[in-house]
Amino acid sequence: MDSTQLFNLFQSYLEQLPSFLALLAGIVFAITRWKHHPKVAMVVVIALVFLLLHLIIFTILYNVVPRWFISSSGSYQDFRTVIDRVYLILGLLSNGAAALGFGGLLAAIFMRRRSEPVAETNP
User: Fold this and answer.
1) What pLDDT is attached to residue 75?
2) Which helix (DSSP H) or strand (DSSP E) does residue 111 occupy?
3) CA 86, CA 14: separation in Å to the nearest integer?
4) pTM tops 0.90, yes or no
């Protein structure tokens, strides 16, 4: 990886900083709610960690994989066909993986929640 690729990777991570922060905040919030709804919080944390890993991994893949195929393609027509297929496959994999993460969050939304009874204090 040369300095241009590292700069592009760093720039991609900066573009996704709001998403990183939102996922981290969601993880922290789910952990703070663990005692009240342990099963739901566990599913939420797993889904959010999966989405966080998804962002990290697919940012790297989108910055590295197309460059490998660009350097190996010959003519312009081959280049366009190869790059179109690379982005199609990366898009399908990325969106499929994101759907799994969001499916976990959706499952957590509709899970049964049994809250621990809160002890009432009488003054």
Assistant:
1) 64
2) none
3) 24
4) no
